[in-house]
Amino acid sequence: MHNRALYAGSFDPMTLGHVDVIKRASRIFDELTVLVTVNLAKESLFSYEEREEMIREVLKDLPGISVDRCDGLLADYVNRNGYDVVVRGLRNTADFDQELAMDQLHKRLYDHCETIYMISEDRYGFISSSMAKQVISLGGDGSALVPEPVLRRMRQKYGLE
User: Fold this and answer.
1) Is the distance from CB of 117 to CB of 89 less than 8 angstroms?
2) To the nearest 10°, the Cα dihedral for 129, 69, 7, 30?
3) 79 and 110 in contact (C-beta within 8 Å)?
4) Torsion angles phi and psi, residue 9, rounded to 5
5) Is it the case that residue 148 has pLDDT exceeding 90?
6) pTM of the entire structure?
């Protein structure tokens, strides 16, 4: 069976937790697309193009992974492109509560796609994009939060390099 999976998020910025989920999911699925999506509830630090560039740079050595973006409804993208699975990462019970509501909605919107959840590794469970932005913008060491290419771009964005 040929399985195509999608891992979607705003990735503003991509964290080490995101990278961990991507690596683990890429071992399970034949093809994995990392999809940069819009999050209307958040003010973006990086443009779509910048996020895509950073993700491509971070994942360049991982086979079977593609990167795309979507500024519309995730379900429309999933259905239009015929994905079998959407992968979601969970760090804690707050993530679970939010994802449960989204899953119930997506069951009504997806044609034939299933959602699977990957629990974050302990060492990444505390990391969020918001936390990374706060620590790095204030000059803190973000090397335990985001991949090096992302850290470099964040430092540039905040005028720290």
Assistant:
1) yes
2) -140
3) yes
4) -175, 170
5) yes
6) 0.93
